[in-house]
Structures are given as structure tokens and as C-alpha cells.
Amino acid sequence: MILRAGIFLGIALFVTIGAAKAATISISRSETSEIYYVTLDGEIVANDYEQFRQKVSTISKAIVFFRSDGGNVVAAIMIGRLIRMKNFITLVPSNTRCASACALAWLGGAGRFMGENSQIGFHAAYDAKTRQELGLGNALIGAYLNEIGLPYDAVIYVTKASPSSMTWLTISEAQKMGIDVALFEPSDQQPAGPSKVVEPAQSNVASQLHQRSKEFIATLYRTTSGPTNEANAALNNIYADTVTYFGKESSREQVITQVQLFLARWPIRQYKPKEGTVKIDCDEVALTCAVTGVMQFDAQSPLRNERSTGEATFEYHLRFSSSYQQMPKITAEAGTVLKKSLQALSPENNGSPSNTPDGYSPLGVTPGNYAISENISNGILNMRSGPGQPLSSRSQPARAE
Question: What is the pLDDT of residue 379?
């Protein structure tokens, strides 16, 4: 297979990037090519998957160039999975080394290439503190290699070297182990024109998740602004089985009970996202989206002669069961009040004391800083947003009784 002209752009980036303590991820494209050139240079650290995902999320065709001595195994596996899902090509150019965790990410390529004098090395996973071989790490590697279609011989080959040694891949060894790889010969190519950084179009999956999340939030606030019986009926289809609800791991039933109590307390409600504040960030591999913004609220209780108006931030983490699922589930919810005005509905009760706390909580919004931490085992991304403590350390949202 001959790579298109323009691949020299990616190789040339290595000349100017230089060695880095943490991975530097860059993207370029020639003016005459549809292919993007992604370079990953330096040690792979835990948050590099998120950096890589964000930068390539809207790219459909790419060649990924590697130069790294390794790093975080979980991040490398996640990068490799994303590369495979998007059918990217991977390349370790001539006179360049990609070892340890880097080599795992390189294996994710739908097409794999190595330069004539490149070094691609493998060894067993190990504990960074003790330097001892780590069985769990090797199990993750084995599962990943099986996922991308490599045979058991390849799994053994990749993990057989001890942490203090290295197995260097050759074309002949790759063929014996069932690892498809081709030699890249730059002499077959012509140098490309000047590089150009281009804002890529949004990928189909990412676009679908983004649009569905936007529609979900609009429907959520439209439903909870309607009659209480209709809002209550919709709750079972909104939340996941387990929800990180304002800092506490709660069952769906527990969350629904709290929301129903609130809806009953404020029977007349109107909620709507403030125009221009909604931001949606989706992970098309994990099929999750984080939606943040500011919500404007107007809640009334004729029975208590009270009206509460104001604005509050909101944050939802949504999970789709597949890229085709129309309606996601809420897996985490948080927010904080920005401003609030509490007043009587009728003049005769002006000045009446209110037992509504300052932290008016439409759908559970609570004052103060907040953060979401969603930890998923086996290498799925750790997510955190905003200042403050993890939600697991936060108390329940304040509500009017």
C-alpha cells in the first residue's frame, strides 16, 4: 500500500516539536489533501486520551505519527481503540522510536506502517511504583489486542518481555505473529506543499450525539415545565439505574422520589436554558455527552403564596446505549444557583416569612462549587468538570420543606 503524498507533513512536525515530557498532539493538513496528519510526540500521560479525542473528534481520515518511549497503558489503549474505531492509519517514521505504551496505541491503526529504521518495542505491563510486572495490566492489554483482532500469538509476543527489557518488532516477526504491518518507503512519495491547520467538519457519530443531547435537554425542561402528572410519568425514562446526584451515588428510585417531592412543592414551573449558554461535549467512543449551561427558572406555589425566580447553572452527564439510541439516560447531575428572587404571589401576604432556603433548587440545584467525577473501570475515561470537590463528597441538595 502506498500512502498519499503529503505524509511528509506529519514527519516534518517531529523536527520542530522536539522531545516532550508529556505528549504533544498536533494536527495539520496540506491544502491539496483530504487526510489530516496527527502527531503524538512524548510521554503518554493519563489525560492524553481526552486531549487526543478532542482534537480528532471531528476528523474522518487521518494518519497518526508516533514518537514516544511509552507512558500510561490505559490512556494508550483508549487512544488505540479510538484510532481503530475511526479507521485511522498509524505510522512510526524512519529513525523514530515508539515503545511500550506507545506501541500499543500504534497497534490500533486500521493500517499500520513503520519506517525502515524505526523502532517499535513491546514489554509486559508493570506497576510504576514497584517496577513489578502487573497481571491486571497484561489482562487489559490482552483484551485490547483481542478487541482489535490480533491472535493469541500476538498477545504473547507483545507481553513476553519483562518490564526491564524490550521486544523490538520487525516486519518478519510481525508476519509470524499475525500482526499486519507494512514498510513505509518515503522514496515512493513526493513532498507535499505547505501545511495548513484546518478546522475539520464534525464526524457523523459526534454530530448525532450532540444533536440528540441538545434535543434531550430541551425536552427535559419542556416536560418538567408542564403538568406535574406528565413530568412524573417521564421520570422513569430519564435517569439511569444509578445516578451521581449532587454528590451522592443514588438509585434511580431515590432520585425520582426527590424530584417528585420538589415538583409537588412547586406545581407551577417554567424552566428554559438561557440562550447561548449551553455547551455539549461528546465522547463518541464511550457514547457519553456532558451538557452544561445556565437555566432560567420561574416556580410558583399558590398554596404557599410563593414565587421563586432566577438563574442556575446545570450540568448533566448523559450516556447512550448505542449510536442509534434516540434518548440517553442521565448518569450524573449537578448545578448551582447564580441568582434568586423570592417573593409573595399576592400583596396580602407580602412580608410573610418563607421557609424556602437561599439555595432554591430547580430539579435539585444546590449552591456552592461542584464537580462531577465518573470513574469507569478498565480504562474508560475519568471525567471531572468545574472547581470544588467530587460529587461523591457533596451533601444532598437543599430543598424547601
Answer: 33
Q: Which amino acid is at 100?
A: S
Q: Do the Cβ atoms of 122 and 157 come closer than 8 Å? A: yes
- CA dist 205 and 171 (Å) reads 35
Ordered by start, the domain boundaries in the chain are 8-196, 204-393
DSSP notation for 43-68: -B-TTHHHHHHHHHTT-SSEEEEEEB
Q: Which CATH class is domain 8-196?
A: alpha beta
363 grid coordinates: 430539579
Q: pLDDT tens-digit profile of 276-323?
A: 999 999 887 778 899 999 999 999 999 999 999 999 999 999 998 876
Instruction: Record the cell numbers describing residue 159, joined without a space.
Output: 507481553
Handedness of CA 114, 120, 122, 128 (dihedral sign): negative
Is 49 or 203 the better-scoring residue by pLDDT?
49
Contacts 24+ apart (CB under 8 A), 86-89: 86/56, 86/59, 86/60, 86/62, 86/203, 88/38, 88/56, 88/61, 88/62, 88/63, 88/64, 89/3, 89/62, 89/63, 89/64, 89/113
What are the phi and psi torsion angles at 239 (to 5°)?
A: -100, 150
CATH class of domain segment(s) 204-393: alpha beta
CA torsion 181→185→189→193, rounded to 10°? 80
According to the model, what pLDDT value does residue 197 have?
A: 44
pLDDT beyond 90 at 32: no
